[in-house]
């Protein structure tokens, strides 16, 4: 039985992970969970159902203490970082945003294995993370990276020609005019059910840009060998193109339980973790190149990743500000990437050199957020 810590237990990934635990009670014991605490009742119900003795929150700690008198409640901005360092078999980091970097580093430093659903850990601090991660200590949860991981198993890196990430294309892949998109439209993803930030990032294709940076770090592959293509059905999650012309793909219905289960139970698969493809019916899967003119986020992310230093962290931090502004209906949909690019250009000269520690990451992110807020106020509608 594996001792499991879940960071972000009330989010989409965390909830699905707990469903896997519930379906496989002999495989996992949940020893700690964390969440922001904005929905304390959900956290209380999870703690009672899975008999969790350690809970971390950033708010509403008193509510949890009153409802769970026998549990240890850790509160404050560093709660997830502290809990990530609890000795366990696996830490599932399902936090959204670059605030997930510190917990990732904390878990790795004490030797915990990390199932990483927080791609921003690698975008904002990839060099820091990879400098301490040991082989098989950092396992991907994103469906695209889980697919690449599976396609690469047992293969020689020297024989890999390209990593090919698939993208659903979001709700606007066939829409020519993106200027008048509403928040409700952007949150209506055609394939996946995700949190609002990830859903907006999928609509702008920022998510795919972040995933290219993540793939660079996870698989130690140059950006010139990482591509993305539109695959609306979201059944083929990614592919690896080999030097002999062969392409190996990983396919399954669009459901995150497969990637989650593989990461938290590695090296073994969990029987029936997700539904299989029904090969008794007909299927049509299509693939198309990404329209870089309508969706410039991928090229911008690739440029930031290639130049390195603090640029990926700047890209991500500015995007977090702009997505929040769009959700609050302060800026247009197209202003998200336009503003992010302005921030990247503004801070480009200050981002050279490696980020040495968390303080460096925080400093460059704070600069990016400050400028992003200033720019958002200028373009606010």
From TrEMBL:
Top EC group: oxidoreductase
Residues of the 1-deoxy-D-xylulose 5-phosphate reductoisomerase C-terminal domain: 138-219
UniProt record, GO biological process: isopentenyl diphosphate biosynthetic process, methylerythritol 4-phosphate pathway involved in terpenoid biosynthetic process
Known pathway: Isoprenoid biosynthesis; isopentenyl diphosphate biosynthesis via DXP pathway; isopentenyl diphosphate from 1-deoxy-D-xylulose 5-phosphate: step 1/6
Keyword Thylakoid: no
InterPro entries: DXP_reductoisomerase, DXP_reductoisomerase_C, DXP_reductoisomerase_N, DXPR_C, DXPR_C_sf, NAD(P)-bd_dom_sf
Essential cofactor(s): Mg(2+); Mn(2+)
Record-linked Gene3D superfamilies: 1.10.1740.10, NAD(P)-binding Rossmann-like Domain (3.40.50.720)
Name this protein carries in UniProt: 1-deoxy-D-xylulose-5-phosphate reductoisomerase
Reaction catalysis annotation: 2-C-methyl-D-erythritol 4-phosphate + NADP(+) = 1-deoxy-D-xylulose 5-phosphate + NADPH + H(+)
Keywords assigned by UniProt, alphabetized: Isoprene biosynthesis, Manganese, Metal-binding, NADP, Oxidoreductase
HAMAP family according to UniProt: DXP_reductoisom
One Pfam family this sequence matches: DXP_redisom_C
UniProt-listed Enzyme Commission number(s): 1.1.1.267
Residue ranges annotated for the DXP reductoisomerase C-terminal domain, each copy included: 252-370
Signal peptide range: none
Residue ranges constituting the 1-deoxy-D-xylulose 5-phosphate reductoisomerase N-terminal domain according to the UniProt record: 4-126
UniProt organism field: freshwater metagenome
Family: Belongs to the DXR family.
GO MF, one example: manganese ion binding
């Amino acid at each position: 039985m594996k001792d499991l810590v879940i960071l972000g237990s009330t989010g989409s990934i965390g909830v699905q992970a707990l469903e896997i635990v519930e379906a496989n009670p002999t495989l996992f014991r949940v020893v700690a969970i964390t969440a922001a605490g904005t929905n304390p009742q959900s956290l209380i119900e999870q703690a009672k159902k899975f008999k969790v003795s350690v809970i971390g929150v950033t708010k509403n700690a008193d509510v949890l203490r009153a409802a769970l008198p026998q549990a240890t409640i850790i509160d404050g901005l560093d709660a997830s970082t502290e809990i990530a360092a609890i000795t366990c078999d696996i830490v599932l980091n399902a936090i959204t945003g670059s605030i997930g970097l510190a917990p990732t580093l904390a878990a790795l430093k004490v030797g915990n294995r990390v199932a990483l659903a927080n791609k921003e850990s690698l975008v904002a601090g990839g060099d820091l993370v990879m400098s301490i991660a040991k082989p098989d200590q950092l396992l991907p949860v994103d469906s695209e990276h889980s697919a690449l991981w599976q396609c690469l198993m047992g293969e020689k890196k020297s024989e890999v020609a390209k990593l090919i990430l698939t993208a659903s294309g979001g709700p606007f892949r066939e829409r020519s005019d993106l200027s008048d998109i509403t928040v409700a439209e952007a949150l209506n993803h055609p394939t996946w059910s995700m949190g609002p930030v990830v859903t907006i990032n999928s609509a702008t294709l920022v998510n795919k840009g972040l995933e290219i940076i993540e793939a660079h770090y996870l698989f130690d592959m140059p950006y010139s060998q990482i591509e993305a293509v539109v695959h609306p059905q979201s059944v083929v999650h990614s592919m690896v193109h080999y030097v002999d012309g062969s392409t190996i793909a990983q396919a399954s219905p669009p459901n995150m339980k497969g990637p989650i289960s593989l990461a938290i139970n590695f090296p073994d698969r969990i029987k029936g973790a997700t539904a299989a493809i029904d090969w008794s019916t007909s299927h049509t899967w299509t693939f198309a190149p990404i329209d870089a003119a309508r969706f410039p986020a991928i090229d911008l992310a690739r440029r930031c990743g290639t130049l390195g230093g603090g640029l990926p962290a700047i890209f991500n931090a500015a995007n977090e500000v702009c997505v929040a502004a769009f959700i609050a209906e302060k800026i247009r949909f197209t202003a998200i990437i336009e503003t992010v690019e302005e921030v990247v250009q503004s801070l480009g000269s200050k981002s050279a050199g490696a980020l040495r520690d968390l303080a460096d990451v925080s400093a460059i992110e704070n600069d990016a957020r400050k400028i992003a807020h200033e720019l958002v106020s200028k373009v606010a509608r």
